[in-house]
Amino acid sequence: MSIVLDLGGLGPADLAAGPSALSELMASLHVLAEPEHHPEAAGWAARAAAAGPGLRDELSVFAPLWARFRCRLFFPRALPLAASLDEELAAVAALPAEDFLELVAPGVLGTSAQAMPPARELRAGTAAAEDYARRCLRRSYARGELARQLVAAPLELRDRLLAVLRAADTAFFAEDWRTLRTPLEDHAREVRRRLMVRSPADVLTELLPTAARVGPGERVRLDKLQTDEVKVAPRPLVLVPSARVWPHLTVKNEYPSCVVVQYAVRGTTPAEQLTLRDLHHRLMALTSPARMELCRHLLGEPITTSELAARLGSSEPQVSRALRTLRDAGLVRSTRDGKLVRHRLATDVIQRLGHDVLATVAR
Questions:
Q1: Which of 81, 110, 234, 330 is the most exposed place for a label (fewest CB within 10 A)?
Q2: pLDDT band at 299 (very low <50, low <70, confident <90, very high)
Q3: Does the global pTM surpass 0.70?
Q4: CB of 302 within 8 A of CB of 342?
Q5: Alpha-carbon distance 108 to 168, whole Å?
């Protein structure tokens, strides 16, 4: 499963890279809403929650908007990029009711698997609005209640959301952003420099550890538990670096807005990210009872293939094949000691596997 971005036809004027305070605030609110999914940010989340205890109820109301699907409202929609959170919030405040509905309604529903009616049909009392609210309610009570409020009074909900975002900025985000902004801007400046001399596909695969070029042309596969192919041009592509979004990789592709990729800047991630294929190999390597028995012996001490065969009552070729499977999956390390090769379980990789599963699923 993956998202393939076709970057063919993009010129220098169609490419942008830069941090977005509103997108980073959204990522931060996601961490606060689902701290168990972000153990690497536990300390920050505890401090932020303590700084704004009075916000808890209002943040819960709007939490569907920064759940895994991520509402389009929080991402750049056109170039040039806004210079500040105030500028981004002012743009939201200026949205007419229909535009606000168009951006927010899919985020409340929280899936792209179900078709959305045009925003002009989501008026209180219409069949389309009632069906939309029922679909949101089937996903969760919180989504259903937020959908009901959205179709009943979109501008009132817009103003209420803006008040919550400004309160979160005052409580904890403004201080956090003062620390994060400069390194993110420095990173984006380097990305823009690369885009001047390299193809966008090359730059994207350098930035994202789980991305790879595919086929002919400027096509990049992004490793995600989704399936889609996105032709970017003639819209711009905007790369939004983030310090809080890990382990997620977010792609927003709604027409007619620009295509946005929000990604974690290296150095802000707690560990190397696995591709889906690598994770599958590690999990499958551990499904064999024979290989699990081998792991028990590899855990205690470095041991040779012949010693393992003697312990297990197996032939050396059988043990070698099992070791190769484990080693190819990154679960065993082998080191040469003179004429002997000793093997040992990569316990750090095993310990991290649960977190790797969560990070890959969440991506």
A1: 234
A2: confident
A3: yes
A4: yes
A5: 20
